[in-house]
Amino acid sequence: MKIIERGEALRYETYSRLADNYISNIHRFMKLCISYLEKYNLQNSVLAEKLNNYFVDLIDALNCMDTNKNLINHLGLEEARSKIKASQAEFLNSLNIFIK
Questions:
Q1: Distance between CA atoms of 63 and 83, rounded to whole angstroms?
Q2: Which long-range CB contacts under 8 A does 9-17 form with residues at least 24 apart?
Q3: What pTM value is reported for the model?
Q4: Could you tell me which residues are beta bridge partners of residue 66?
Q5: pLDDT (tens place) for every residue of the chain, 100 residues total
């Protein structure tokens, strides 16, 4: 994102394209996780709930971007990073409980 702001990105790279790629990658990762949850019958578990919360926070992070004007709210970005880190930790803790 900072590369775009400094004008160092390729001229066709925009926040909109970054957001599209980001969502595409999240979607792929979600499909992989869902297949794992289904394989081990964990669809309604705490693990599945924490994973879902993590994905919600990942997607909500895009709210700090104005894709029409190619602008980013840096305070919003830091808040999103903090939320993602917290939900990631909750998911990992639920994974540790599941493994034990």
A1: 13
A2: 14/67, 14/70, 15/65, 15/66, 15/67, 15/70, 15/71, 15/72, 16/67, 16/68, 16/70
A3: 0.82
A4: 71
A5: 565 566 666 566 778 888 898 999 999 999 999 999 999 999 999 999 999 999 999 999 999 999 888 888 999 999 999 999 999 999 999 988 766 5
